[in-house]
Amino acid sequence: MRKLCGVLILVCCYAAIHAQQNLGQAKTEIHSPIIQSGHRVTLSIKAPNAKLVQVKGDWLAQNEAANLTKDADGVWTYSSEQLPSDLYTYQYIVDGVSQIDPVNPYAVRDVGSLYSLFLIGDGKGDLYKPQAVAHGTVAYKWYSSPTLGISRRLTIYTPPGYEASNKTYPTLYLLHGMGGDETAWPTLGRSIEILDNLIAARKVQPMVVVMPNGNVSQAAAPGVSEKGFESISFKLPHTMDGVFESSFRDIQRFVESHYQVGKTKADRAIAGLSMGGFHSLYIAANYPNTFDYIGLFSPAITPPFGDSSSIYQKIDQKLKTQLQNGFKLYWKIGRAHV
Amino acid sequence: MRKLCGVLILVCCYAAIHAQQNLGQAKTEIHSPIIQSGHRVTLSIKAPNAKLVQVKGDWLAQNEAANLTKDADGVWTYSSEQLPSDLYTYQYIVDGVSQIDPVNPYAVRDVGSLYSLFLIGDGKGDLYKPQAVAHGTVAYKWYSSPTLGISRRLTIYTPPGYEASNKTYPTLYLLHGMGGDETAWPTLGRSIEILDNLIAARKVQPMVVVMPNGNVSQAAAPGVSEKGFESISFKLPHTMDGVFESSFRDIQRFVESHYQVGKTKADRAIAGLSMGGFHSLYIAANYPNTFDYIGLFSPAITPPFGDSSSIYQKIDQKLKTQLQNGFKLYWKIGRAHV
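Above: the input entities. Below: the structure tokens describing the complete assembly.
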């Protein structure tokens, strides 16, 4: 022990050091993206050998790609017009091959691809931005699903003050679209920042938000389950076959037995995007008097999938019953493209 | 309401749909990486116009880049030799420009750059892989640091069974290296998978693991604090100036008042990589009788930084006192490069 102590003191005498870990520093003079005044973005990529460099992004039309311009150093640049305040994703296409911005460390996965990110503030985009407000907690939790016979992972947001409070909170079950998983809302959907900001602005009341994985062929998001770094495709099994909806009570039971949440219809909301809107519709209709608030965001409303699941059968009758039972809000906006 | 119900039933009659969300599907026939039998990896990238495509990766020497070979379709390929079971990061260099593998959705950020990932199993790498075992919970939590006058974020792992148990758990404070943040251990360091696997194998006892942010110029990891998508560099202010060590009790107080953890020296361990080893050394030496277990992994042991902080003063005396007070384990392995 004395020897160890001596060694420690000795090594303290060494001069400047470099850490043994991978320093991983980008050795480049290129900065991209740069948010300019006037809500414009400038994107740059060094590709001296390329013949054509383009960018695709949320601010352009669906199939549009804008050309970048090359300078004498082989740096290609693009400057946007004035953009509405929002969060934007983009990819370059270098001689036909898509890639993210190599000098932008902020990227998000959508289904099986990564996209680079930037944010234009001073407007709606500020909702998606971390602000100087109290922050809730994000946790990735595994729960047992007896219906499916496996453990599955969900994301759960508890609002600022939750731990110190004795009160019960309302719960929102927030469901992702096809190709997503329990990480889709907190990453692509910026749900954590939005909740922190809306709660701080007193535009919504503090609530617990549960973001489960709606694809029951996955125990958890790609890379997190025992499948390891599996390949990811958009057409996934077990997404709209009634099995997720049938196992919904497992999630509700887990949440209501582990969290300080209300257990009446008035305490529960369910909402979802695209496939998540489809799931929300059927879950709300199949579990009578469970939800007082139902939100369908661009829902993927398809015909029932044959007779494969009783979840989808007699939907008109179930919706009529839901209407008779009553609810406080049934909000549908947009519709998935047909 | 009746009208809404009618509309819902009506739209149920639509035929096949496409979700409105960005589908984000990689339109490519290239698959990369492919883990071959015999612990080899094959990497591929389509770059028909490129003159030279190379790969840099953990399995190669520090400054080595291996050449890929181009086929008639403009697809460049590399196959490795047999590799030891491990987790590997890599980047391509396409005509001198670094980029991640555009068809590999699994990437990790190290300081300011993204790296693509693959894993070779059947050995040590299995420790870094999600297995069919019980999973603990990962939570990202904000705590108040009165010493610094701000809220900061930390990552906390609670082991399987934690919620259902009344017992107290030991705590490991696990500190990252320079350029890292509270996400470094759970992402780059695979700490969650390692803990789940070691606990399941009964090689470690269930414990709470606290992974704070050791750079006090950050409230939270880049992109998560109110600085938004800030640029990230390796040379960061407030990393080894004594301020993090001085504010350590704020973290300990938060953890011990919010979690079921023991509050004696025997219940506490502190360990860290590189700069985190440096922090661990000084925290353990400056807070007598706080830790029975101290781990320095390739610690960055530098001379004290002038007289800027009393944390670094009289370190030989503090270490002698620590030795006299006693501890169960003081484990030092490797050393940051001088």
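Note for the figure: Chain A is about 20% helix and 25% strand.
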